[in-house]
Amino acid sequence: MKEINGSGNPAEGKYKIERRESSLPRIGVFGVGYFKYWAQFEGLLDALLAKQKVLIEKIEKNNAEVIDFGLVDDAQSAYDLVPKLQAENLDLIFCDMLTYATSSTFGTIIKNINVPIVLVALQPDKAMDYSKASTYMQLYNDDVCSLPEFAGVAVRMGKKVPDVIIGTLHDDPESERMIGDYCRMANVLHGLKTARIGHIGHPIEAMLDMHTDSTMLTAHFGVHIVQCEANEIVGNYSNKVSEAEVTEEEKRILSFFDTPDPVSDPISEKLKKEDLNVAAGVSVALKKFVEDKNLDGLAYYYNGEDQSETQLVMSNLIVGNSILTSSGFPMCGESDLKCCMAMFIMDRFGIGGSFAEFHPVDFKENFVLVGHDGPHNLSIAQGKPVLRSLKKYHGKPGFGAGVEFKIKEGPITMLSISSTYEGKFKFVIAEGESVEGPIPPTGNTNTRGFFKPDVRTFLTNWIKEGPTHHFALGIGHHAKSIQKIANYLNIESVIVV
User: Fold this and answer.
1) Which of 137, 279, 116, 286 has its CA nearest to residue 184?
2) What pTM, to 2 d.p., does this model score?
3) What is the C-alpha separation between 387 and 15, in angstroms, rounded?
4) Peptide bond before 453: cis, by omega within 30 degrees of 0?
5) What digits encode the pLDDT tens for the residues 51-103?
C-alpha cells in the first residue's frame, strides 16, 4: 500500500499518513541434506550451502528478520536443532530441500515444533543437460526428491502435511511471489502474538452475532484485549488538547479529504467548520489515548448521555479512526472485536482491511454495494476520500463528519470471523471485484462488489456459512493465503464460491 498524503501524489505533500513502526517477523531457515554425500562428491556441500544463501536473500527482501540455522544432515543434528528453533521465538520456518535427505532430519523437528513450517524445493537448473548429466548434477538438483517422504513422516507424527513451494531458484516469479506471501503471513502471526486491542462499550443494540469472549480471542489468536473506558478519550478531549493542536489537525484532515457540496441525500451537508473542529479535536485526543494505552487496534461503541460531551466525542471518532486505521491501527465501530481481528489480519498481510457489510443489491447490473458508516482504511481508497457533514448518524446517536469513498477498483477479498454454536471461531472468506461506477453520496463507504457466479447465488452461499454481518474488505485476491493463516491458527475456514 502506498503512503497517503494530502497532495494525492505519493511523492509530495506536507501531511503524510505513515505506517506505525512495528518489529519484523522472525523467520528461521534450515537446509537438509544427506551426510553420506559429502565424502562421496567433493564440493557438493559448499554448492548446496550457496543455494541456501540465495533463498535467504530472497526472504530478506520481504521485510523479515532471518535466522540461518545452517544444514541438518543426520538424525542427531535434527535433535540438536529443535531447542535452538524453540529458543528463537520464530513466526515461521522455511525448510530448504537442498538435495535428497532422509526424513530422520525432519521427523523430530515436525513433531516438536509448533511454528508453521514450509518446505521449499527450488531447483537451481530449470532442466539437467542430459548429454552431460552426472550423479553429482542430479543430487545438486534433487530438491523435490524428499518432499513425499517428509510429507508422509509429518502425517505419521500426527501433524498436517506442511505447505510446499516448488520451483526454480532463479528466474521464477511464481516462487518469488509465494515466498513473499509466506513472509506476509509470518508478519500476521508475529503481530497477533503481542497485539493489544482496545475495547470500549458493547455491541450496538446487542447485535448477537458480534458478542465475543475476550479470553477466547487470546486463546486462539494470542492478542490481549485491553478493556478501556470512554472517559479516557473524553478526558483527553477536554483537558489535553490545545487549540494549536486542533488547528494543525484540521489542516492535516483537509489535506487528505475532499469536501464537496451535498448531492441527493437530505441528511448530508457540505462539511461544516464546527464539525471539522470537533473531528480534529477528537482525532488529537484519540491519538493521545492510543499512545497512553499502547494499543494496536480498537473496537468501540458507546452511546453516552444525550447531548453530553461524552456523546459528542464518542460519536465523532470516525475521522481520527480512519486516519489511524490507514497507518496500521485497525479501528472497528459498533464494538465488533471479531471484525477488528479480521481487519488486523488484513492490515498485517498488507492488503488494507476496511470495515464493511452488505448494502442494497443492484439486480440490474448484478452487483451488491459493500460498505459501512464509521471508520475506514483510506490507504485502499479509489481516488481522494470525501468528508461530508451528516445531520444524523443513521441508527446511532449524534451527528458530525462522515467518511465516504469506495475501495480501489480491481480484485478484492473479504474476511468475516464468526463464532459457532460450539464457541469456536470460523473464517468465512471470499473474493470478488470492485468495479467502476457511482456510489450513494451518503457520507459512508460503498463499493460496487461483483461476485461469481452471480450476486444472488453468491450471497446465498455466503449466508449459508453463518458469517457475522460485518467483515473486513481488502484489495487483491488472497483467499487461499488467508485460509492458510486460519490453518496455522487451527481455526475452521471456508472459501465461499
Assistant:
1) 116
2) 0.95
3) 17
4) yes
5) 999 999 999 999 999 999 999 999 999 999 999 999 999 999 999 999 999 99
Residue 166 within any structural domain of the chain: yes
Strand 386-390 to strand 400-404: parallel, antiparallel, or no bridges (unpaired)? antiparallel
> What digits encode the pLDDT tens for the residues 157-208?
999 999 999 999 999 999 999 999 999 999 999 999 999 999 999 988 779 9
Q: By the 8 A CB rule, do 406 and 377 touch? A: no
Please report whether residue 5 resides in a domain.
no
**CA pair distance 347, 330, nearest whole angstrom:** 7
Q: How far apart are CA 442 and CA 321, in angstroms?
A: 18
Strands 352-362 and 367-372: antiparallel
Q: Looking at the structure, tell me whether residues 171 and 202 fall in a common domain.
A: no
Q: What is the pLDDT of residue 5?
A: 66
Burial of 128 (C-beta count, 10 Å sphere; 0-12/13-18/19+): middle
The x, y and z cell numbers of residue 69, run together, are 540455522
List phi, psi (to 5°) of 365: -110, 5
Average pLDDT over residues 267-294: 97
C-alpha of 211 from chain center: 22
Question: Would residue 17 count as lying in a domain?
Answer: no
Q: Kindly state whether residues 171 and 276 are assigned to the same domain.
A: no
Name the one residue in this structure whose C-alpha cell is 505506517: 19
Q: Which three cell numbers stand for residue 149?
A: 517422504
Could you tell me the CA-to-CA distances from 429 to 407, 459, 461, 486 in Å, in that order?
17, 12, 11, 10
* Whole-number average pLDDT of the chain: 95
What is the CATH number for 363? 3.20.14
State how far the Cα of 255 lies from the Cα of 489, in Å rounded to an integer. 40
Q: Which of 25, 351, 347 is nearest to 186 (CA)?
A: 25
Closest residue by Cα to residue 59 from 114, 120, 113 = 120
Q: Please check whether residue 179 is in contact with residue 165, taking contact to mean a CB–CB distance below 8 angstroms.
A: yes
Q: What residue numbers bound the domain in which 40 lies?
A: 26-190
Q: What local confidence, expressed as pLDDT, does residue 16 receive?
A: 86
Q: Look at the alpha carbons of 458, 460, 464, 470 in this order and tell me if their dihedral is positive or negative.
A: positive
Mean pLDDT value across residues 121-136: 97
